[in-house]
Amino acid sequence: MIKLNIKNAVTENAIKKYSNVVKNIATKMEKLETDGFEYLGWKDLPANYNKIEFKKIKNTVKRLEREKVDTLVVIGIGGSYAGAKAGIEMIQGEFPSKRKMEIIYVGESISSTNLSQKLVYVEDKNFAINVISKSGTTTEPAIAFRMFKKILEKKVGINNASKFIIATTDANRGSLLSMAKENNFTTFSIPDNVGGRFSVLTPVGLFPLAASGVNIDKIMKGALIAHKKYSSIDLEENDAYKYAVARVILSKKLPVELMVQYEPQMKAFNEWWKQLAGESEGKNHKGVFPSSAIFSTDLHSLGQFIQDGSKILYETVLTVAQPNFDVLLEENESNVDNLNYLAGKTISEVNNVAFQATTDAHVKVGKVPNIHIEYERMDELSFGELVIFFERAVAMTAYLLGVNPFNQPGVEVYKQNMFKYLGKPE
Ligand code: PA5
User: Is the pLDDT of residue 136 over 90?
Assistant: First the structure.
């Protein structure tokens, strides 16, 4: 269950003033009458995802396991990898005790140093490749695919390599699809009505998640719970839309939203949210700049600025109700570190006190508006719920700001420049 608390940020009365405009937009979204309506397919995925592809995902993971694959190289950029990474790290943590395959992410950068190190890293692994690109033409993943495919062919032989390549792309067009057909790769399709950053609940996210050992049935169950809650057109009942309205009100004076987590394994989740919000809302000189921090770590780098620096930001703090593990602090006879006053408390209780103390400092002394979101656990159910909560909230925020959430004209400028400067033939 997700609990939203906005009392340290905006008043309920200020939120209520948006009831009619939210109802109007939400109704149009349900009737597919909004700008970019042709990309609203993500909102119904929890209730009617493609069961055939879902089964094929599980069967492909089993096949790779039989082939003794221990590493999956996920090649993609932006929405083509951020959601899977967010889910895998949230659920499994930095040092997973159980996992099916290790997941390596490439194609999200063209650093020759980074690529070279990853190429060396997989050399002695039994690896497979999942190349993910909806357009099939993005330069960064295309370069990485060419390089990792070559290493794979060298390792298992040209004729065998296609058994270990899984392509996730558009169902009908693009050069990746043509290559996949020609070479007989296993393919997964990205539905036409779902754009990259809203695609984590399609094979884009679900295949790497399943390969890592995460239970994708439970993710979809969490997503369905959230779907039922956050598809209400009534602002009073819909916390995802309330959060959207709070962001729109706050953004009138504060251009930056800082998403804060107290769990290091939520770092990739922050990155997923930044991409979702930034690319969906930052248009026509509008939108909040999404930034993120992990506390306590960043209390010792950004904490000073948040408390006392220029008044440019508000915080959205996510905390987990039940940690996946906890540790009791025990009494120590010598007490040389003077920590016996904490004996009997658990580490998560101390982390919770850090949250309370920091919130009080930032809100009461620093006058930084603070939205608090609590979710249940770092597990599959909560991941599915959070995905739908934030997708709904970001889409509603964009519509309230008057921009189309589903295009990215700004990103296209650099992509086209790259093609031009590199001399790509027409
Ligand atoms: O959200 C988006 O649409 C983008 O971030 C894309 O996912 C990203 O640009 C990658 O595009 P593609 O999957 O076509 O390679």
Answer: no
**Half-sphere exposure in the Cβ direction for 211 (13 Å, CA):** 31
Q: Is 415 a catalytic residue?
A: yes
Ligand 1 pocket test, pick from 85, 135, 391 with the greatest ligand atom count within 8 Å of Cβ, gives 135
How remote is the CA of residue 67 from the centroid of ligand 1, in Å?
30
Q: Which residues pair with 166 in a beta bridge?
A: 130, 186
Strands 102-106 and 165-170: unpaired
Contact 384, 230 (CB under 8 A): no
Q: How far is the CA of 244 from the centre of ligand 1 (A)?
A: 24
Atom of ligand 1 nearest to the CA of 276: 1
**pLDDT tens track for 259-318:** 999 999 999 999 999 999 999 999 999 999 999 999 999 999 999 999 999 999 999 999
Are 240 and 276 in contact, with CB atoms under 8 Å apart? no
Return the number of other C-beta atoms located less than 10 Å from residue 178's C-beta: 12
Distance CA 29, CA 205 (A): 24
Cα distance between residue 46 and residue 201, in whole Å: 8
142-196 confidence digits (pLDDT tens): 999 999 999 999 999 999 999 999 999 999 999 999 999 999 999 999 999 999 9
Please write down the long-range contacts of 61-64, taking CB distance under 8 Å and 24 or more positions apart.
61/100, 61/207, 61/210, 61/211, 64/101, 64/128, 64/164, 64/211
Report, as an integer, the average pLDDT of 361-376: 98
Half-sphere exposure of 143 (CA within 13 A, CB side): 13
**Burial environment of residue 118 by CB neighbours within 10 A (0 to 12, 13 to 18, 19 or more):** buried
Which ligand 1 atom is nearest residue 79's CA?
Answer: 7
% residues pLDDT > 90 (the chain): 96
CA of 199 to the centre of ligand 1 (A): 10
**What pLDDT, in 10s, does the model give residues 74-112?**
999 999 999 999 999 999 999 998 889 999 999 999 999
Examine the residue annotation and report whether 285 is marked as an active-site residue of this protein: no
Residue whose Cα lies nearest atom 8 of ligand 1: it is: 78
In this predicted structure, what is the pLDDT of residue 348?
97
229 belongs to the catalytic site: no
Q: Is the pLDDT of residue 53 over 90?
A: yes
Pocket of ligand 1 (CB under 6 A): 77-80, 133-135, 138, 141, 195-197, 279, 408
Which of the following is catalytic: 98, 252, 300, 367? 300
- B/e letters for 130-166, b = 16+ CB within 10 Å, e = fewer, are bbbbbbbebebbbebbebbbebbbebbeeeebbbbbb
